[in-house]
Inverse folding.
């Protein structure tokens, strides 16, 4: 009776209702969602074009030096097409960006695409690790806080976690640098690797050196970031506590800890998974601040220096790449939710 | 409506307000939050009364035009001093201004940025969310697609570019924060409106032939307001943090006193790690004010939670 698809699913042990979701998750939905993502990127490109043309100075201003003659500047301007009509510039910009041509960075003296390709993985490593740390600690703390919400100290614990959430990330980073670098001297507080290494350049010491440099930025983001997930899990946990299945688990005589983490906790995790887009926003903003504090050579630091140095081709492409990452991850999350939970419809909000 | 029914209505309404107020005032988070907000508001309204000195005051010479000796300027930033050689309970900055004075005068900027950005994003987000949820159809479709697209714009990079264009003024920062903060208001208010519109009393109002604007104003809005209030308070908190972050990145107006700028100056002059009296108070002030907004928001949520 079951088709080959269902038999495969049964073999790997998926429950039947999960398999039905897979069939319900149609190509039409995927196409519509892809169209919205593409439209979003087009709008962001337009916004970017308008914003960067409105910035003081032209693309060429970053490339000119005081010694240049007017003729030389005019040649530069002609080469960059600054005097073409705006719609020509706009069309060329859209075409170039969609064919992967991001231009040349005047301050880095390298193709923009190369600079971005070097920078992006560094940011992803740092914030992948930070996000993982936040999403292990945060939900666990939320479960405990929600479970003991009415107990003595419950309000105090909430007050403390909200206060932690209210501290500026760069300030926390400074305090950590002061403690672990200046006071204790345990961890380095700048760059991604030791600048002039005195140790052997074999894989193990290099990896250890990298991890030591990763520790403080990671700790700074995680020290503030875990509260976000906690605040989502805590009320959900409180609702779960009053549900019938928790009563049933109690009646069965299960241990308190088992009920907390395995029965109520798992259900309280739902809001965390559906609001991962919020975490993504936190990631981008956190990247800019944390990378600036720790001279971590990633995307965030790149955006700040590119804007301040008026390296417009680079700033434009970096902004665009960040937007692409945000849009693609949101697309994947939305599709994943519809796959996991058929009650969530298009966009995840209805 | 007869006079008696109106009386009865008024008294239940007032007792409901009374009950809500009592629940709010017995909530410890609400008390702490309100107290902090009260102190900051006092500083913002009358900084001259609270602060120990004028903002022009400089260590050793005070507000006179005297010049510092070499030894005196070498001793700056000076740790906390109580009368000898001068009075500065939280020490001084590298330029000789009292940290406590700067802190008190910075309260106004923090409060202004928080409230202005929050009000602005509510004024945009709440009406759009109401329309989106009440009318549905193509209105909802258009508004939600706009929100979907704007959600893809990364916040801080956007603000950095905007500040680079318009210059680092407080108004620009407020506008930039509001331009992204209204999205969340719109989405949440829309969700609340959707759940209210399905209730029977809205059906009844529709059946009675009330016009849409009246149904929204009299039957939907009162239930949306508590949610909007919580969002308002959270937006204020986010805005103050965002302003501090921008100040750290060197994108805030350095001519007005603010806590973020105070921290940024500590970094710019290289005293982050050797002047704790300068590093700690502004950070604690930002965290306290932001936490106070969070506390009040949580308390409002608790009080209006009808379950």
């Amino acid at each position: 009776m079951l088709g080959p698809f269902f038999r495969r699913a049964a073999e790997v042990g998926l429950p039947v209702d999960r398999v039905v979701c897979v069939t319900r998750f149609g190509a039409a939905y995927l196409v519509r969602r892809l169209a919205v993502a593409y439209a979003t990127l087009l709008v962001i490109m337009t916004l970017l074009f308008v914003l960067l043309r409105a910035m003081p100075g032209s693309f060429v201003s970053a490339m000119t030096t005081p010694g240049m003659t007017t003729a030389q500047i005019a040649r530069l301007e002609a080469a960059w097409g600054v005097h073409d009509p705006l719609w020509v510039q706009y069309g060329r910009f859209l075409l170039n960006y969609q064919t992967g041509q991001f231009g040349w960075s005047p301050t880095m003296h390298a193709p923009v695409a190369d600079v971005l390709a070097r920078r992006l993985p560094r940011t992803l490593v740092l914030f992948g690790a930070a996000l993982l740390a936040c999403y292990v600690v945060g939900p666990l703390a939320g479960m405990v806080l929600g479970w003991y919400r009415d107990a003595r100290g419950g309000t105090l614990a909430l007050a403390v976690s909200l206060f932690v959430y209210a501290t500026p990330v760069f300030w926390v980073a400074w305090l950590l640098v002061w403690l672990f670098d200046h006071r204790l001297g345990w961890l380095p507080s700048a760059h991604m690797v030791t600048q002039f290494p005195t140790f052997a350049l074999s894989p193990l010491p290099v990896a250890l050196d990298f991890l030591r440099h990763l520790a403080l930025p990671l700790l700074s983001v995680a020290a503030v970031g875990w509260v976000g997930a906690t605040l989502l899990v805590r009320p959900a946990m409180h609702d779960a506590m009053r549900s019938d299945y928790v009563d049933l688990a109690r009646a069965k005589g299960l241990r308190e800890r088992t009920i907390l983490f395995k029965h109520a906790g798992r259900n309280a995790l739902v809001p965390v998974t559906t609001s991962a887009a919020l975490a993504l926003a936190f990631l981008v903003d956190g990247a800019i601040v944390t990378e600036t504090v720790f001279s971590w050579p990633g995307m965030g630091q790149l955006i700040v220096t590119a804007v301040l140095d008026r390296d417009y081709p680079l700033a434009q492409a970096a902004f665009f790449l960040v937007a692409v990452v945000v849009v693609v991850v949101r697309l994947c999350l939305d599709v994943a939710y519809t796959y996991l939970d058929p009650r969530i419809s298009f966009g995840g909000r209805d | 409506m007869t006079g008696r029914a109106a009386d009865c209505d008024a008294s239940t309404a007032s007792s409901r307000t009374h009950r809500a107020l009592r629940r709010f005032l017995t909530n410890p988070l609400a008390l702490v939050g309100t107290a902090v907000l009260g102190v900051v508001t006092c500083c913002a309204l009358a900084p001259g009364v609270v602060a120990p000195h004028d903002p022009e005051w400089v260590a050793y010479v005070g507000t006179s035009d005297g010049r510092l000796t070499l030894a005196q300027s070498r001793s700056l930033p000076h740790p906390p001093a109580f009368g000898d050689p001068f009075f500065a309970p939280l020490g001084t900055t590298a330029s000789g201004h009292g940290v406590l004075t700067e802190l008190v005068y910075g309260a106004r900027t923090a409060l202004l940025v928080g409230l202005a950005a929050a009000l602005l994003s509510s004024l945009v987000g709440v009406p759009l969310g109401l329309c989106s949820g009440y009318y549905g159809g193509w209105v909802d479709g258009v508004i939600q697609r706009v929100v979907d697209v704007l959600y893809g714009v990364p916040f801080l990079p956007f603000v950095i570019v905007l500040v680079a264009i318009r210059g680092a003024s407080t108004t620009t920062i407020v506008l930039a924060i509001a331009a992204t903060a209204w999205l969340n208001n719109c989405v949440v208010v829309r969700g609340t409106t959707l759940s209210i519109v399905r209730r029977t009393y809205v059906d009844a109002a529709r059946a009675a032939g009330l016009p849409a604007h009246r149904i929204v104003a009299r039957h939907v809005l009162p239930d949306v307001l508590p949610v909007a209030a919580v969002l308002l308070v959270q937006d204020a908190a986010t805005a103050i943090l965002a302003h501090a972050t921008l100040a750290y990145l060197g994108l805030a107006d350095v001519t007005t006193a603010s806590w973020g700028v105070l921290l940024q100056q500590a970094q710019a002059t290289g005293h982050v790690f050797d002047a704790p009296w300068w590093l700690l108070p502004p950070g604690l002030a930002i965290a306290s004010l932001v936490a106070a907004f969070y506390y009040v928001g949580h308390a409002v949520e608790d009080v209006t939670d009808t379950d």
In short: Confidence is low (pLDDT under 50) at residues 1-10, 12-24, 345-350 of chain A. The two ends of chain A are 35 Å apart (CA to CA). Strands of chain A lie at 104-105, 110-111. Chain A has 15 helices and two strands.
